């Protein structure tokens, strides 16, 4: 399979070289220049010495964590239940369909739905809870962010569950395991790969979330993504923006190492 | 495998079909093969009446290729980096100054321009571009306050300082722009919104910190949607956005706050990389004609700098003191100047701190 | 596993779907409103659809958007699947981790950074900005999600199948097309769909790398924000949504029909043999 591996790596490696390594080199290079165009380490110094950026980093990680956790909680049961439906492929496609409508428009729609004169508030008043300030709260921000990320979590988990052989579940039941035991000892461990893939495709992009933080969150929470956006598009301080970019990449690599695959049994097959 | 291959073939076939349709459409529109008869116009989205583009095309035979951008800075980056050639673009005043300083603009040949006398002298020969060597004013407006008469009585908001009143607790939306928010604090203290004086800036920052209990959110264009939905009582925003929201919600009103406010002007300029100069001048001259400027003002809803065009507008529009203020009000306004990279950074850092540490 | 869903489970799924579709229905509803914006419904009209059909520029942009989305997703899926296979074949743990980290860099970098660096990169190469540069960029930022979705399917695949195929004398190409690809099809398919999502959603990268005469729907919508996005765009989204829905349903039932026919054929053949 040696040749096979090389063959696979030709297009992919070319992509990595041109569209990943080249831009990263560029970003790292730029991160050493200050706003006046002089070579300096001051961007990194600013980052680590200013409360502003450290707080921002904390915000980003914390909210990315919350978004990932909520998304997982909602997506796992959804993916599981979807698998039990008759036309499950069709239902899965219907989960993805909403992602093909422009994000800015959907966000505007959420503003309309959640605002003071919106339908959700009328509903809350109708059932007796009374009008509530929904927008510009953590809850609404997390809600919309979760909304965006859900399909990215459901897909890999769904695929993992679809592969699960019913005989394992039946065997576990026959051996007298309770519903919870079957889930925690059999189903969940067997779908862990899908969950990991989902967590990665939600957590990593969530670190650099912007737009929603302003549109729905009213800039109450400022994340690293927002700061980069500002530095590139408003201040035009590409150096500082790149510095934060480098830090995001480092944070991502750490996440990868933490959630990365452990050594597995079945992996030794080509050792011969 | 067969299925996979057939899927790939289907996707390629569909793309080809779409491509041919697109090509056909372009041919109908007359883009392809017309070589020099094109005008590449780089403008804000929906910032011109499409009927005027059609009219221009019929009149002159040029085809207009209309590309859009969403902020001055992103447009600047595109033009500076190259790889494209736009014949006309529409920066705001401080961006004209920066582009000029970076040699990204082509000086205007006054002999090829007509209708410059139509532009009101209030908007000509300003500090960002003396003698209008590079720019022709396109639309203008002010920074001001929008309030909803369901929550705020007329006359309760006339100055910037009124924003600090405790009655507006958690009820003000601010525009997400360091120049404007620091600017309103500076102007409320009688300082210049273009100041480089660190003491004045720190003072402004301190004053802003006291505003935080009243600030509900810091937003961009979506401010319009929020105000139309009665989500907040007060918003600090531009007259252009204000006109848009007022036309959709009659409870909203716009005020130009005292003692002074910012005057902004969007301008037509010709970038250095322009290839179709003739078309560019033809378009500027076309837009300088009063009937066209008037039609555009009606479509876009912003204030036109074209004096005869203003006279053509319906009386209720042109007599609206908030959108066509008297000469004395305009005299008191301040036009932003490009602060240079370093000072822009200072403004931004102060604003970021304000946003980070409120509440 | 084909057990009937309980009432609670059904209710849960229904709620999830209602939430997923609520904003879209909101957009569709306002495409029929007489007003100019998405606040306060003003009565029913088809005006915005008429405006849309008389706007060749917007239709052109829609076509451009679709071409880029389809082609970029196709290429991204092919390259991404190859990449996942490569990673799968790589035994060395450190190399795997490095490759995967590189893979995810474009996912963690905000669009403005990617857009700005691609812009610098393309202008350095002297590439003319336009369709090709946009297509290349979309392929580039869609690849990581394909890899992330295909890789778990590979890991779940029963490795002994490959060895069995090799023992039975299959060459690598046969093993790939007859054993591996069918096993990871769901992953590839999801990868393609998510690549379409990435491509349709992207604003910042496209904005930076596009040139004269080429634009996508996202760029157009974002740049209209300052003037207020008008309901013509809602009408467009409503049609877009309807067409996608029909495509998905059509594709699905065609697939069902084909599979049904296959089983029927097989039954007939079996009947003849008997």
From TrEMBL, chain A:
It is found in: Cell membrane. The chain crosses the membrane at residues 12-41, 61-83, 90-114, 134-158, 198-217, 237-259. Residues 57-259 form the ABC transmembrane type-1 domain. Its main location: membrane. It comes from the Bacteria. The keyword Transcription does not apply. One of its GO terms (biological process) is transmembrane transport. It is a multi-pass membrane protein. GO terms for cellular component: plasma membrane. This is ABC transporter permease subunit. It comes from Furfurilactobacillus rossiae. The lineage of its organism: Bacteria, Bacillati, Bacillota, Bacilli, Lactobacillales.
From TrEMBL, chain B:
SUPFAM superfamilies: Periplasmic binding protein-like II (SSF53850). InterPro entries: SBP, Sperm_putr-bd. GO terms for biological process: polyamine transport. Spermidine binds at residue 94. GO terms for cellular component: periplasmic space. Pfam families: SBP_bac_8. It comes from the Bacteria. The keyword Ribonucleoprotein does not apply. This is Spermidine putrescine ABC superfamily ATP binding cassette transporter, substrate binding protein. It comes from Furfurilactobacillus rossiae DSM 15814.
UniProtKB/TrEMBL annotation, chain C:
GO terms for cellular component: plasma membrane. The chain crosses the membrane at residues 12-32, 66-88, 100-125, 131-151, 179-200, 233-254. Residues 62-254 form the ABC transmembrane type-1 domain. It comes from the Bacteria. Keywords: Cell membrane, Membrane, Transmembrane, Transmembrane helix, Transport. It holds the Pfam family BPD_transp_1. GO terms for biological process: transmembrane transport. The keyword Cell membrane applies. InterPro entries: Bact_Polyamine_Transport (IPR051789), MetI-like (IPR000515), MetI-like_sf (IPR035906). It is a multi-pass membrane protein. It is found in: Cell membrane. Belongs to the binding-protein-dependent transport system permease family. CysTW subfamily. This is Spermidine putrescine ABC transporter, permease protein. It comes from Furfurilactobacillus rossiae DSM 15814. The lineage of its organism: Bacteria, Bacillati, Bacillota, Bacilli, Lactobacillales.
């Amino acid at each position: 399979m040696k040749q096979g591996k090389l063959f696979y790596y030709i297009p992919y490696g070319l992509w990595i070289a041109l569209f990943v390594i080249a831009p990263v080199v560029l970003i790292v290079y730029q991160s050493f220049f200050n706003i006046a165009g002089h070579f300096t380490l001051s961007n990194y110094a600013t980052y680590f010495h200013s409360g502003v950026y450290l707080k921002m980093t904390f915000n980003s990680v914390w909210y990315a964590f919350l978004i990932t956790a909520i998304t997982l909680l909602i997506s796992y049961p959804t993916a599981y239940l979807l698998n039990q439906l008759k036309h499950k492929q069709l239902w899965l496609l219907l989960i993805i369909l909403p992602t093909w409508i422009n994000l800015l428009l959907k966000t505007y729609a959420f503003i309309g739905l959640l605002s003071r004169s919106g339908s959700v508030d009328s509903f809350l008043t109708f059932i007796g809870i009374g009008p509530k300030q929904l927008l510009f709260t953590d809850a609404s921000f997390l809600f919309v962010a979760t909304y965006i990320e859900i399909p990215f979590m459901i897909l890999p988990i769904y695929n993992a569950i679809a592969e699960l052989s019913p005989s394992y579940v039946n065997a576990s039941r026959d051996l007298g395991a309770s519903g919870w035991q079957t889930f925690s000892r059999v189903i969940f461990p067997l779908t862990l790969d899908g969950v990991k893939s989902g967590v990665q495709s939600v957590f990593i992009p969530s670190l650099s979330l912007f737009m929603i933080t302003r549109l729905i969150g009213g800039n109450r929470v400022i994340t690293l993504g927002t700061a980069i956006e500002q530095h590139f598009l408003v201040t035009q301080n590409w150096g500082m923006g790149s510095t934060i970019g480098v830090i995001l990449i480092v944070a991502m690599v750490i996440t990868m190492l933490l959630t990365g695959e452990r050594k597995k049994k079945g992996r030794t097959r080509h050792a011969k | 495998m067969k299925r996979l291959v057939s899927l790939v073939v289907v996707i390629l076939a569909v793309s080809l079909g779409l491509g041919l349709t697109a090509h056909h459409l372009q041919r109908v529109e007359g883009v392809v093969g017309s070589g020099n008869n094109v005008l590449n116009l780089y403008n804000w989205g929906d910032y011109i009446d499409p009927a005027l583009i059609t009219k221009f095309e019929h009149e002159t035979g040029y085809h207009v290729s209309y590309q859009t951008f969403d902020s001055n800075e992103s447009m600047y980056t595109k033009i500076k980096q190259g790889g494209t050639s736009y014949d006309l673009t529409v920066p705001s005043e401080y961006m004209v100054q920066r582009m000029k300083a970076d040699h990204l603009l082509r000086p205007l040949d006054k002999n090829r321009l007509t209708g410059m006398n139509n532009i009101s002298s209030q908007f000509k020969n300003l500090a960002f571009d003396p003698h209008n060597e590079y720019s022709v004013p396109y639309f203008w407006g002010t920074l001001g306050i929008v309030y909803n008469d369901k929550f705020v009585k007329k006359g309760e908001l006339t100055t910037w300082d009124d924003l600090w009143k405790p009655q507006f607790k958690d009820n003000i939306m601010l525009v997400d722009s360091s120049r404007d928010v620091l600017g309103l604090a500076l102007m409320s203290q009688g300082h210049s919104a273009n100041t480089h004086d660190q003491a004045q800036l720190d003072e402004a920052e301190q004053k802003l910190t006291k505003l935080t209990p009243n600030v509900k959110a810091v937003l961009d264009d979506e401010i319009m949607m929020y105000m139309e939905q009665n989500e907040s009582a007060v918003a600090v925003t531009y007259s252009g956005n204000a006109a848009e929201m007022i036309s959709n919600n009659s409870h909203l009103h716009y005020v130009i706050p005292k003692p002074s406010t910012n005057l902004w002007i969007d301008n037509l300029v010709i970038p250095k990389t322009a290839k179709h100069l003739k078309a560019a001048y033809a378009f500027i001259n076309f837009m300088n004609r009063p009937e066209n400027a008037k039609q555009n003002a009606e479509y876009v809803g912003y204030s036109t700098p074209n004096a005869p065009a203003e006279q053509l507008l319906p009386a209720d529009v042109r007599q609206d003191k908030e959108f066509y203020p008297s000469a004395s009000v305009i005299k008191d306004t301040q036009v932003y100047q490009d602060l240079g990279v370093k000072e822009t950074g200072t403004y931004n850092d102060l604003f970021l701190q304000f946003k980070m540490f409120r509440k | 596993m084909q057990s009937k869903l309980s009432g609670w489970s059904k209710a849960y799924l229904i709620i999830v779907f209602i939430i997923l579709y609520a904003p879209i229905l909101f957009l569709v509803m306002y495409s029929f409103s007489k007003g100019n914006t998405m606040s306060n419904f003003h009565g029913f009209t088809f005006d915005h659809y008429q405006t849309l059909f008389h706007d060749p520029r917007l239709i052109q942009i829609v076509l451009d958007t679709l071409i880029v989305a389809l082609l970029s997703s196709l290429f991204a899926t092919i390259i991404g699947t190859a990449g996942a296979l490569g990673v799968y074949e790589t035994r060395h743990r450190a190399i795997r981790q490095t490759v995967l980290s590189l893979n995810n860099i474009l996912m963690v970098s905000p669009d403005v950074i990617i857009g700005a660096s691609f812009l610098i990169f393309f202008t350095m190469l002297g590439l003319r900005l336009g369709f090709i540069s946009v297509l290349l960029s979309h392929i580039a930022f869609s690849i990581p999600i394909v890899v992330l979705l295909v890789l778990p399917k590979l890991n779940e695949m029963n490795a002994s199948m490959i060895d069995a195929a090799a023992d039975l004398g299959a060459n690598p190409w046969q093993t790939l097309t007859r054993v591996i690809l069918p096993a990871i099809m769901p992953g590839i398919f999801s990868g393609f769909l998510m690549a379409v999502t990435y491509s349709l959603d992207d604003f910042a990268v496209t904005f930076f790398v596009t040139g004269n005469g080429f634009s996508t729907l996202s760029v157009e919508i974002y740049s209209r924000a300052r003037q207020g996005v008008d309901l013509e765009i809602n009408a467009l989204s409503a049609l877009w949504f309807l067409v996608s829905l029909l495509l998905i349903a059509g594709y699905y039932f065609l697939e069902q029909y084909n599979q049904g026919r296959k089983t029927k054929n097989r039954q007939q053949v079996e009947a003849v043999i008997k």
